[in-house]
Each structure stands twice: as structure tokens, then as C-alpha cells.
Amino acid sequence: MPRGTNSPGRGLAQRVAAPEITRASVGLRSDRGPILLSVMLSVGLVAIDSTILATAVTAIVRDLGGFAQFPWLFSVYLLGQAAAVPIYGKVADIVGRKAVMLFGIALFVIGSILCGFAWSMPALIAFRAIQGLGAGAVQPMGMTIVGDIYSLQERAKVQGYVASVWAIAAVVGPTLGGVFADLATWRWIFFINVPLGVAAAWMLTRKFDEKVVRTKHSIDYAGSILVAVGSALVILGLLEGGVLWEWNSWQSIAVLGGGVLLLLAVIPVERRAAEPVIPGWIFRSRLLNGANLVSLLVGALLIGLTSYIPLFGEGVLGTSALVAGLALAAMTIGWPIAASNAGRVYLAIGFRNCSLIGSGIALVGALSLLFLGAGSSIWTVAGGSFVVGLGLGFVAAPTLISAQSSVGWTERGVVTGMNMFARSIGSAVGVAIFGAVVNASLGVRVGSQAVSPDSVEPGRLADALHPVFIGATIAAVLLIACVAILPRGRADVS
What we know:
Blueprint: H1 8-17, H2 33-52, H3 57-64, H4 72-95, H5 97-116, H6 121-149, H7 152-183, H8 188-191, H9 193-207, H10 221-240, H11 250-272, H12 286-316, H13 321-349, H14 351-369, H15 378-393, H16 396-405, H17 409-442, H18 458-483
């Protein structure tokens, strides 16, 4: 079981992570403000990168070619990010968050520079993988640092600052992508990460004084390799099944089966490891299991709506790409609004009750999407997306904070990493399920090029996308069930 708030690890959280920081105030102008700002800038790198590229795909393909390969720009990024997260979490519990965060920022910036100079689509895909490996450190380390330097009560306020980054990115990302693609060059989509990354690294280096007690550690090389390769194969199989190969083909069986076998091999290896990269006690905790299942379903919900709301707007309602993107941005705006207020709610009624309210709101939003059709208004689409985002904002942050608060400094990195890893797995599962349903409805054959919204009659496309909204509703119902797994009780730990 994870050690509780009175464990040696918990004392280490105050003594090791930030011994010279006073806890007088919260905000960007407080003594911890520069650290918070550096975390926001770092998370902003990942947040903007997740939205800025989509609007420039046409310009990239026009310049580099490789239309059939461009989906890999997104898949390989997710692949690199997800496979590395659990390892980063464990390393951070050994060497500290600062070193891992700086490494992630450096890798992300290097990958961005290489992407900006890419000479072909295969080269750009390879460099996107480097970006993904860097992003795999940045987001979980940002959340872990916040968990280290702020108390539970303070995080109720601070999460609003971090969540606001995603709201800003939802608007700034597509806008910058369109401007660079139309008025300059798509390469600036990647070069813009350089000054942001340098600023974040400089501020973190100057202001975050993390004194880690150096002790001798046993590195779990075997477990790390098995986790990275196994999870990469599983995610690859989920992303490309039904796209590059049939689900029942030998390729699918080899990739998915090989990944599952490697992950199963992790179990005996971790039992023998002195310091396992994925400790067994994570899976014996009701709270952590519930929080990770919630994160998995949040990932599935997000990827389903992110992938198909814009397609519905463009292909069914006939809006422009920008308008369809703004309809989706409503979800990303609803999320931080809820997250910034979730702290007061979970401090008053507990993590579980707050998350139950949020999952109920998300279900209402998903149900509203079931009524969308060819005659719907884009405002209806945006409204449903906003409500879903509002609900998820009351779910994602509280469940992660509850998981972080249940362990000490020496376990918080791996707990945060596993939570983020679960969301990546959920995204991959969502891509597989939703993609298979839509492709089957449209009669898209494996290996064929992506369907253009202009090539499908709006009514037929609406019918093909309707199962996606059914799936989102089912995911929201399952989300309520997973939240119910969380233990009862008020948020009274610090």
C-alpha cells in the first residue's frame, strides 16, 4: 500500500522538495510564483503543441508531401509521450523533479528545432517522436512539482492557474497555427517553442531550489525497458489497428500480442526488483486504482470528442475549419473554469463527491450530443462540448490531487506518472474504438486515405458519427462508476 501522510516520504516532501519556501500566499506574485509560472510555461509548451499543428497540416503536406503519412505526426507523438511517462515518474522520485523537468524541456526544444528544419515527412515524424519523449516528462513533472510545493488547500487555488494554460492554448494554438501557415511558414509552429522552453527552463533553474538527498539506488533497467517497449507496442497496435492493418491480421496480433506479453513479463521482474519502476502497491490501493481508471476514461472521452467534433462541424454542418475548431475549444474552456472552482468544492464535500458531481455534468453534456443532426446549430455543438469540459474539470484535477495527497514525496512522481499514463492509454483505446466504428459506418477500407468531409454526404456522415456520441455517453456512465470506487471521506489531508 502507498504510505500515508505520516510516512517518512511525507516528511521528505517538506524537507527535500522546497526547504526554503514559505507558505504565506498563493499566486504569481508570491514567493513561489516564479516556480508556478515556470510550470505554467512548461505545460504551455505541451498544451499549445497539442492544438497548433492541426491547423497547419495542409501547409505541411503541400511542402513535404506524404499525405498518407501525416496521421503519424500525431500518433508517434502520443506514442513517445505515453511510453516514457511511467519511467520519468520513477526517476523523479529518485533524482528529483527539477532534473527530470529540465531534461524534458531540453528534449522537447531539441525536437522542436529539428521539426522546424525537417526536410521530409518521415524526418518530421521522427522528430515528433523526440518531442513526444520530452512532453512525457513535462506535464507529469509540472503536476508533481505543484503537488510538492503547495499544500492540499493551496492546490485548490493553484490548479486554476495551471488549468488556465489549457484554456489559453485552446484559442492561441489554432490561431497561431493558422497565422504561421498562411502568412509565414509552418516551420514557425515548432520554432515558437524555443523561446518558451528557454524561458521556462531559465526560471525553473533560477527559482526552484530542490535539495534532493543523494543515496545509492538500484536502477530497474529490465522493468523500464519492458514497460517502455510493451506499452509502446500496445499503443501502436491500438492506434494503427483497423487503419494500417485489419484487426484480425497477423500484424495486429503480433504487435498487440507482443506488447501484452511484455507487459505481463513486467510482473515477475518488478517483484524481484529492489526499486521497481512500477511498484506493486499502486495496484493494491483502492484510491489509486479508482483515480487511474477515471483518468483512462477521461482520456477516451477527450480523444473521441477532439477527433470528431471538428469533423461534425465541417462535414455535417458545413462550417469552416476555424469555426469547427472553436466549437471544440468550448470544451477546453469549460475545463479550466470548473478546475479553478473545484478546489472549494472538494475541500467542502470531499474528492469523491466533487468528482461524482463532475461526472454527472459530463454525462449531461454527452447526452446532449446524442441529439445532434444535420440540422443542428454549431452553437449546440459548442454548448454540449462546454458542458462536457465543465464536468471533466470537476473530475480530472480532484482525482489526481487525491492520488498525490495519499503518498509522500518519494512516491508522488510515480503516482502522478501512472495517472498520466492511464490517460494516454485511454486516448489510444478511444482512438481504436471510435475510429473502428466510424470507419465501419463509412465503409472505409484498411489502408485507404483519410476521408475528406467534402466527399461524404452530410446526412450519411452525421449517421456515421452518431455512434461516437453514443460511445462518449457510455464512457461518461462508466466514469461515474469509476468515481464511485474512490473511498469516501473529506479532503482533510495536507
